[in-house]
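tool=predict chain=A
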Amino acid sequence: MDGVLVHESTALPGATDLLNRWVDTSRRFLVLTNNSIFTPRDLAARLDASGLIVPEENLWTSALATADFLSNQHPGARLYVIGEAGLTTALHSAGFIMTDRDPDYVVLGETRTYSFEAITAAIRHIDRGAKFIATNPDATGPSAEGLLPATGAVAALITAATKRQPYVVGKPNPMMFRSALNKIEAHSETTAMIGDRMNTDIIAGMEAGLFTILVLTGITSREDLDRYPYRPSLVLDSVADLVDMI
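tool=predict ok
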């Protein structure tokens, strides 16, 4: 989503035309984000404010992917959750019980209100045997004032205290892409992934067997490409270049 369709609160070149073309041609699509703070309804409203119409059923977050993963692993598990409405809503909707007593899993997501007490409780639950899950590996996130510590940074703190690494569901784990494919009943051989980050979007798409398209409107520049031992299937300046290809 960010760096591909929008930057901050502004739609990127070609985003509106591309979304309209997908709708007009009945293409199945999902807009993915590693951010687990917001619900699909929240994200749809944010995109709408940028002039982009994306129904909430066409949004797939790391929180939804985490709920999907846990539903396959341990339906109805007891969870200790650190996160915002995007994560707690996804887990509640999937039938999980949230508790601070003897949880089966500690689930760590994005939040703007990390507390020492909650992190301490997570460490103690993991030390007593709870399994450790994180929605995404991003160590920092942006804000108007500068960088903020994000899920990956807090996960590293918990790992340092417990010596337990989390299983990370979001990008670059291709698990997130596979769950997205299942949601829209798509096959990897006939699906493309459009992203702006080589080290999350492109590698995860490649490992999921997708055709990968890097756009240069976000994090990765053309000069960065030679730093990586893998390549996207296609490199474009922006999603505007895709409109005439569909």
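The longest helix spans residues 62-73. The chain has a mean pLDDT of 94.
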